[in-house]
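seq:
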Amino acid sequence: MGCTHTKEQTIIPTENNEFLKTHFHDSEIFEWCQIFVEKSRGKSNTSSTNLIACINQELCRTYSHQLHPNGDVTRLTNAFFSAYDLNNDGTIDFSEFLHAVSIIRRGDCKEKLALLFLLFDTNHEDSIDRLKLINIMEALYQTKGIDYRDSYNILLRRVDLIIDRLENGQNDGKISKEQFIDNCLL
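struct:
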């Protein structure tokens, strides 16, 4: 997916109108697109005004490692990538990037929690469970370079406490996006 330049220098995603709904003004979208293209090493397509740029998983991992040089970012990067690659094509294009950044920077609590839910729901089953929470907690520890194996029981207790709070007495072991958002807002 590209970005189209108009004479007013606004940038509009060209393929999916759903992503036109951001919390940014046109001038901010233009700035984000310039940053995205620069960081993704995209190049201008000389035959049109489209900018071709995307972030693959390796590039995402490289930037994550720069943020966390002392840890293993692989698992957490995979979760982030899965959450942001909305069309599951193996890349994060500008619209997907802008969608996530818009929510992170200016979204309301419900939007931010819905995006966070995607980080946990890595296989897109519309629910999270104990195993998914354990996986993301392990990934967070690895990213920080913390050896959690000696205190694995503490990690498991924390996950169980989170599940108990989010299930809100339903005891089915699965937490829907609605349950997650509603109980986080309590």
